[in-house]
Amino acid sequence: DAGVIQSPRHEVTEMGQEVTLRCKPISGHNSLFWYRQTMMRGLELLIYFNNNVPIDDSGMPEDRFSAKMPNASFSTLKIQPSEPRDSAVYFCASSFHRGRNEKLFFGSGTQLSVL
Amino acid sequence: RKEVEQDPGPFNVPEGATVAFNCTYSNSASQSFFWYRQDCRKEPKLLMSVYSSGNEDGRFTAQLNRASQYISLLIRDSKLSDSATYLCVVNMEAGGTSYGKLTFGQGTILTVHP
User: Fold this and answer.
1) Residues 28-87, chain B: which have Cβ within 8 Å of A?
2) Cβ of A33 and B101 within 8 Å?
3) Higher pLDDT among residues A64 and A96, named by residue
4) Contact A101/B49, CB-based, under 8 Å?
5) How far apart are CA B72 and CA B25, in angstroms?
């Protein structure tokens, strides 16, 4: 299995530009999570989907952030317009929802730098 | 108060030492508990689940105290390869429905030196 695949690995952009992060979960997994990690705040859950349906987006910082999951094998996280404070590592993770001890598999992350 | 709180460290220990990490969580209704490990510039990976009766996996022992809302991880005979950040993780979803939403602590940095 290829694991959770994220792209791009690194993204450098200028303030005000649109940024789109992509994620392909592990085949057969039915839950998908977007996390953001910074030194100051650690790992924060932004939004998660179950069976392609957004369940909880209360972690999304503001309206500039949006996420979609059009099918079971693809999700995007979009920031428009981007700001320097959005600089962080963005992780996508997936799991097979089965009770409470499911293992969460993370992608390698996207290192985002907004100048 | 943070939902999951850990001592950030760093812990610097010599090879062979025993080291313990602690973690507290705020939601008494939390159901599932884990320790994840994150190497520098890598993604977090599951180290072990934490069960009510305590559990062991080789040199690693995890304990849960529900009354005190406290989780611990003990590493015996530390190796250089144990150097990483250790994340305390809790599923705080209440009730019968769980989607696998996990809340992560800030992490405890461990450095094992020769």
Assistant:
1) 31-32, 42-46, 49, 87
2) yes
3) A64
4) yes
5) 11
Average pLDDT of the segment spanning A80-93: 97
Please check whether residue A101 touches B, CB under 8 A.
yes
pLDDT tens string A91-109: 999 998 776 666 899 999 9
Which residues in B lie closer than 8 A to residue A100 (C-beta atoms)?
Answer: 31-32, 91, 93, 98, 100
> CA-CA distance, B34 to B4, in Å (whole number)?
12
Q: Which residue of B has its CA nearest to A92?
A: B43
Do B17 and B48 meet the contact criterion of CB atoms below 8 Å apart? no
Judge whether B67 and B16 are in contact, CB under 8 Å: no
Write the single-letter amino acid at A17: Q
What is the mean pLDDT, run by run of 10 residues, along chain B of 114 residues? 88 97 92 93 94 92 94 97 96 73 92 96
